[in-house]
Amino acid sequence: MTYSGSTTRIRRQSPTETPKQYPVARPSVATTKCRRDLDKHIRSIGAALGPEGTADDLRRSRVIFDQIADLVRAGGNNITDADYVHLLRHLTRIYSSGDAGRGYDAFAATASAYARVIKALSRRCPMCDYRESIGQLLDLMTRLFQTRHPSWKSIFRLLRAIPTSVNGRERLERVCSVYVHEWFDEGVPNHYSLRRELHREIEELDLEIEPLNNAIRVTREELETSNVSEDAPRDRKVTIFAVARKKRQIDRWQRSMRQSLAQRDEKSRAATLVESDIQELGDRLRRAASAYRLHLVKDN
Questions:
Q1: How far apart (Å, rounded) are the C-alpha atoms in residues 130 and 21?
Q2: pLDDT of amino acid 77
Q3: 260 DSSP β-pair partners
């Protein structure tokens, strides 16, 4: 059969012929640069928290953490899910070294900055496994609470801001009792400010009580050394009035001191109760951190 016009010939590939190679999609220049920037940040943080890190390195690392958090929050096509996983894995590895690097103080100093990055990552890449990083932050938060470092509150706030859908967040809810959440929501500002106020008032009362006590002691000594019987009649009358005046003054000082001592005793009891509540929260946080670590061990 004859066809008019142009024809298209279909070329069959020989079994021995090498298949044609098509170009493989490569990461864009922007994506590659983003990964390089992340790796640079990770190395800087690792060096700051390592044995050779300095105080200046720690200060710079907190700035770097903020830069990473901003980068993650911004997202965009230049950062892939693989980059998020890469970042989380390396940061978790750095913080798993714990006291083996610079020591607890260095990790505690950067804990809240680390928590900000984990929060940002959890919202941008919820499919990652955050169990270990949440456990690290819970441990650091508990130790910061024990040393009364204020950053423990920001860490707890950031942990609670992690979406409940991510792996590890639901377990955090289980180990942290309702009491811990209620205490944080209602008691932290009140208890800490109340404790500071009570201690300040106790110190002020001590400053009032000590000079009153000294004045009473000195005046009593003066009364003991005065000898009315040896004075002349006229001088004896003056001395008697002076003695009576000093005794009245001692009575006034004693009344003031009794009032101040009663107030001090009342405020001391209140401070003891507040401190007991704070101690109870610390105990519950330690139990929560221990329970979380136990679950991680069982998972592994």
A1: 40
A2: 67
A3: none
